[in-house]
Amino acid sequence: MKVRRALLAPLCVVLLHAADPPAQPIPFSHKTHAGAMKLACKMCHPNPDPGETMTIAPPAKCMDCHSAIKADSPAIKRLAGFAKDGRDVPWIRVYQIPSFVDFSHRAHLEKGNTCQDCHGPVAQRDQLSRETDISMGGCMNCHRAKKASLECDFCHELQH
Ligand code: HEC
Ligand code: HEC
Ligand code: HEC
Ligand code: HEC
Ligand code: HEC
After folding, report:
1. Assigned domain for 109 exists
2. How far away, in angstroms, is 39 Cα from ligand 5 center?
3. What percent of the residues of the chain are helix, what percent strand, and what percent coil, each to the nearest 5?
4. 120-138 tens-digit pLDDT
5. Which domain holds residue 6?
């Protein structure tokens, strides 16, 4: 089992890196905003109570800057349209797990796990793609390494 995992690991890395980033409705760049401008992740990903999801800030938040910055660019005009109508941008999800899995961002952040541990070097990316493994195997690998539980009912409700 150990040997087999060691052989498969490099192959999985190659496959994961090959995943193309989804075409987003607006060409948002983390490299520009979180990298060059060093904006804090939580400015746009606030982690509201009870802390399970991070959420993505609505277009009105973007317009704090973009009502003045690049206001004539076609992408920003589209963004302004969403803000004016009070609609969210239909961003294509990058990281998503099925709803039958228990997962809390806040619980992980409180234990010292970082955004990078699970999402890679986001601030260096113009476009995000799923470049880390958040399958059950990916959860298990880190849980094993950090001595967190591997019990089935840690992440899944028991069926009755
Ligand atoms: C322990 C791993 C882990 C850590 C640490 C982590 N994430 Fe996530 N993130 C995930 C998983 C798994 C999902 C998919 C969750 C789902 O579908 O319910 C996700 C989803 C997201 C989403 C999509 C919205 C949502 O909440 O489902 C955003 C945005 C996000 N993460 C940002 C961040 C930021 C910013 C940080 C650091 C402050 C961070 N994440 C830390 C694993 C992690
Ligand atoms: C703190 C200010 C600030 C916030 C908040 C902000 N941006 Fe930006 N954004 C900038 C700056 C500065 C640039 C770079 C402008 C340039 O290239 O001269 C930029 C560039 C962009 C561009 C490229 C525009 C083009 O045509 O070149 C897009 C698209 C964009 N931002 C979308 C967003 C979205 C979506 C949000 C909200 C989730 C957001 N921005 C929030 C300051 C901000
Ligand atoms: C100015 C706003 C802004 C900042 C700052 C920002 N993000 Fe984002 N983030 C977005 C937007 C908009 C999206 C949706 C478009 C995309 O996926 O690129 C997003 C998407 C994501 C996703 C993918 C969510 C999904 O669909 O599963 C992750 C992970 C993420 N951000 C992590 C981070 C981390 C980590 C930081 C800090 C290093 C950060 N973000 C800083 C606006 C921001
Ligand atoms: C980067 C490492 C890492 C990854 C990846 C990771 N975890 Fe964890 N997880 C931890 C650590 C560390 C703890 C804290 C264990 C403890 O209590 O000491 C934890 C705790 C948990 C808890 C209990 C916390 C709570 O009260 O909610 C659950 C449930 C959980 N993880 C599910 C998941 C799932 C599902 C995934 C994959 C989508 C995942 N984890 C991926 C490191 C990780
Ligand atoms: C650390 C968290 C974690 C633990 C522990 C865990 N799982 Fe999972 N499990 C997941 C995640 C995340 C998924 C969803 C993977 C995906 O679809 O991307 C999943 C999916 C599944 C699925 C659905 C598979 C499919 O094809 O859709 C089954 C069945 C399952 N787990 C059974 C188990 C059993 C049995 C155990 C105990 C031996 C267990 N899990 C322990 C996180 C966990």
Report:
1. yes
2. 35
3. 45, 0, 50
4. 999 999 999 999 999 999 9
5. 2-56+91-155
